[in-house]
Amino acid sequence: MIIDISEWQHPDQIDYAQLAKQIDHVIVRVQYGSAYCDKYYQTHLQRFQDLGIPTAVYAWVRGTSHEDMAQEARTFYERAKVFQPCFYWLDVEEQSMIDMRGGVEVYRQTLKKLTNQKVGVYVAHHLYRQFNLAVEQFDALWLPSYGQNTGSYQGSDPTVNKHYDLHQYTSNGRLSGYNGVLDFNRLSGKKALNYFTGKAGNLPTWGIAGKGYFTLATAIHLRTAPNTSAQSLGILPTGSTVQYDAFAHEQGYVWIRQKRHDGTYAYLATGKSDGKKRTDASWGIFN
After folding, report:
1. CA 107, CA 264: separation in Å to the nearest integer?
2. What per-residue confidence (pLDDT) applies to 203?
3. Which residues, in sequence order, are bridge partners of residue 88?
4. Beta-sheet pairing, 182-187 with 166-173
5. Quick one: residue 6, left, alpha or beta (phi over 0 = left, psi -120 to 50 = alpha)?
6. Pick from 202, 227, 248: which residue ends a domain?
7. Whether residue 215 is found in the same domain as residue 191
């Protein structure tokens, strides 16, 4: 099972551990054009990666010129690169410039050079012929076709191009672990799952391994990812002690990682950092 999600799936409504048991791969939206960053993409990516689910990323394309398309690609890469996704996708569902074919090709070329990764394209079914994108230049083609959109595959395959690799067949899918609806996708059979997720087994271990305990000298947010914009799991009060198994200097802080009872990880900032060393006293005591 392959699902794709965005900020419309709020982390507070997801039991990541339960959902992860039912899926093989997840594709997470990072941005809606360069000006809008998805609110929860970091949380989604980190939580699924912690659970061992191969994670890819996608960006809704909104560039208004060739240069704007190139800038969107650069912004997409900068936002996603820390998670080292196994695949990048462009989501083309609106006409944002006259020369969509040329603009999307600039986007692809720019992203390909930056990532040295596979880059695929998703094209809205009703706009496929109008845009006439150079889909043959991409590493994979992803097309939607829902039929009655019942939540299950009913044999309604894409017709605008039969050489697709991934088929989004419903937007009304349901799985335990999330009460809302989900987009479900299936492989066409032309490429194996490991073509899209092949890098997953080589995802680097986060941070530097090191076990210990940290006792807070002040109240600090416990988060789902090592970033101050990631979802807060709660504010740990002064005097709380956290057992950790790794640490890293990221996003201006020294973070420690806590393994949770459900197999996922939580992250706690313990003081400020310049990316290599502490720049101030830690916000607690290590032992």
Report:
1. 34
2. 39
3. 57, 119
4. antiparallel
5. beta
6. 202
7. no
Instruction: Inform me whether the pLDDT recorded for 80 exceeds 90.
Output: yes
Structure tokens belonging to residue 149: 């959109």
User: b or e along 174-212 (b: 16 or more beta carbons within 10 Å of the residue's beta carbon)?
Assistant: ebebbeebbbbbebbeeeeeeebbebbeeeeebbeeeee
| Phi, psi for 106 (deg, rounded to 5) | -60, -45
pLDDT digit string (tens) for 130-162? 999 999 999 999 999 999 999 988 889 999 999
Residues 156 and 213 in one domain: no
For residue 136, with 0-12 CB atoms within 10 Å meaning exposed, 13-18 middle and 19 or more buried, which class applies? Answer: exposed
**Among residues 175, 202, 229, which one ends one of the domains?**
202
pLDDT score of 267 more than 50 = yes
Residue type, position 64, single letter: T
Residues 185 and 105 in one domain: yes
* Long-range contacts, 228-233 (Cβ 8 Å, 24+): 228/253, 228/269, 229/42, 230/42, 230/43, 230/46, 230/267, 231/11, 231/12, 231/40, 231/43, 233/266
Instruction: Provide the residue range defining the domain that includes 238.
Output: 208-286
DSSP 171-196: EEE--TTBSS-EEEEEE-SSS-HHHH
Tell me how many domains the chain contains.
2
Rounded to the nearest 10°, the torsion over CA 69, 27, 200, 244 is: 100
For residues 90 and 232, membership in a common domain is answered with: no
The contacts of residue 165 (CB under 8 Å, 6+ apart) are 120, 140, 141, 142, 187, 188, 190, 191
3-class DSSP state of 21: coil
